[in-house]
Design goal:
41% of the residues lie in helices and 15% in strands. It is α/β, with parallel strands linked by helices and 383 residues long. The protein has 2 domains: 8-91 and 102-152, Rossmann fold, CATH 3.40.50.10860; 170-366, NAD(P)-binding Rossmann-like Domain (Rossmann fold, 3-Layer(aba) Sandwich), CATH 3.40.50.720. Strands 1, 2, 3, 4, 5, 6, 7 and 8 form an 8-stranded mixed beta sheet that branches. A 6-stranded parallel beta sheet has the order 11-10-9-12-13-14, with helices on both faces. Helix 6 links the parallel strand 9 (198-202) and strand 10. Helix 5 (170-189) packs across helix 6, helix 5 (170-189) crosses helix 10 (312-318) and helix 5 (170-189) packs parallel to helix 12 (338-352). Bound molecules: nicotinamide-adenine-dinucleotide.
Length: 383
């Protein structure tokens, strides 16, 4: 049980606002997922129904950037753990993608279907404005482009909007995942053709549905599952997809498993029943534990590390910060480098007989170390 001290307060209710923002870094350090986060803020506004956690993991490469997830976690500790794991993943994603940003993430404890009111979003926008300079955000599960636009009208540090921003990042994420799937196929089979290849897609949301469209257009046979029946019905209709129950999708008879829902699903319990030879999808934190990648390797399942293959959206929003402004062609050219990075990771993994996520983490560490050393040299000045 986490004990919150309300001692370090960034913002108290004032001028009619009922929002409090508290630094809970010390308390969060008790959790196993903490992993040396730089700062964690908790925004609370009981009147407007907001409980938001902004986790800032590592800013060695630049200011923290990460989406806002709205999810009805059962406890504050579960929401905080989710935020910590996701912001840690964002540090890794930015480092591998080679963009000058650090890792951050927001988790808002709410049900996006019932609780996402203008009042809640206004309170959150006030929190974001107070964190200007240290944190940028955008869409994630539960937060739509329209919501991002709403926030952008009230806070400057919101990306992925249609208000002078790069718009919805999901189709770009889907394009990166699509190219990554082809890179994985080529590595395993020597051919990247999708004709007749069976792909099991878990989650038919913004990314999953867009990915299905691309896969189907290239001749793949789709097996799909979603907790939202209407999305499954749409995919059956639009892509002639085969539907399976949500608890059957991981073990579906498929060549490729593409997790595009939530994280933690590739676990020691689930791995023995996976039939696909490749795991490549958009979901963040797919592995329940980092070490589970060894089990995948033992079963000769090629795993495309999540934060490498799903970086398209991040690459797209960070293109908004280019000196000349957002240029879609430049952003897409960077997204097309995702399969090259994956190829490099696959080859190194084979040569060194080490899991792909160990190789990816090594690349991250090299880049973070280099940035910290450069920073240190700049601080010390010329000798
Ligand atoms: P979304 O909310 O639009 O879609 C998620 C879908 O998963 C929904 O249709 C939901 O009903 C379904 N789902 C939830 N639990 C499920 C379960 N147990 N079984 C089957 N389906 C389930 O989210 P999204 O933007 O498409 O993102 C999907 C994943 O990709 C998330 O993990 C997200 O963090 C990650 N991601 C998204 C982006 C992006 O650009 N949107 C970028 C990087 C990573």
């Amino acid at each position: 049980m986490l004990h919150l001290r309300e001692s370090r307060t960034l913002r108290q209710p004032s001028d009619g606002s009922t929002l409090t923002i508290t630094d809970i870094t010390g308390e969060a350090a008790e959790l196993p997922a903490f992993d040396q986060h730089e700062r964690i803020w908790c925004g609370r506004d009981d009147e407007r129904g907001l409980t938001a956690i902004v986790a800032i993991h590592d800013t060695s490469l630049g200011p923290a950037l990460g989406g806002t997830r709205i999810w009805p976690h059962q406890s504050f500790e579960a929401a905080l753990t989710d935020a910590l794991r996701l912001s840690h993943g964002m540090t890794y994603k930015a480092a591998v993608a080679g963009v000058p940003f650090g890792g951050g993430k927001t988790v808002i404890m709410a049900d996006a279907k019932k609780d996402k009111t203008p009042a809640l979003l206004s309170a959150y926008a006030e929190m974001l404005a107070a964190l200007e300079g240290q944190f940028f955000t955008g869409e994630d599960v539960g937060l739509t482009v329209a919501d991002a636009d709403f926030l952008r009208d009230r806070a400057p540090n919101v990306t992925g909007t249609t208000k002078g921003g790069s718009g919805n990042p999901s189709p770009v994420t889907a394009e990166g995942v699509f190219l990554g799937i082809k890179a994985a196929l080529f590595h395993q089979r020597g051919s990247a053709t999708l004709q007749g290849v069976r792909v099991a897609v878990q989650g038919l949301g913004s990314v999953g549905y867009s990915l299905c469209k691309k896969l189907r257009a290239h001749g793949a046979h789709l097996i799909v599952a979603d907790i939202d029946e209407s999305r499954v019905a749409n995919a059956r209709e639009a892509f002639d997809a085969e539907a399976v129950a949500v608890d059957k999708i991981l073990a579906a008879e498929a060549d490729i498993l593409s997790p595009c829902a939530l994280g933690g699903i590739i676990s020691a319990e689930a791995i023995p029943s996976i039939k696909a030879g490749i795991i490549a999808g958009s979901a963040n934190n797919q592995l329940a534990r980092h070490e589970d990648a060894h089990l995948l390797m033992q079963r000769h399942i090629l795993y495309a590390p999540d934060y490498v293959i799903n970086a398209g959206g991040l690459i797209n929003v960070t293109a908004e910060f280019a000196p000349g402004g957002y240029d879609r062609d430049i952003a897409m050219a960077k997204v097309r480098k995702i399969p090259e990075t994956l190829k490099d990771i696959f080859v190194r993994s084979d040569r060194q007989r080490r899991p792909t996520n160990d190789i990816a983490a090594e690349i991250v560490m090299e880049r973070l170390r280099a940035a910290r050393e450069k920073d240190e040299r700049t601080r010390q000045g010329p000798r």
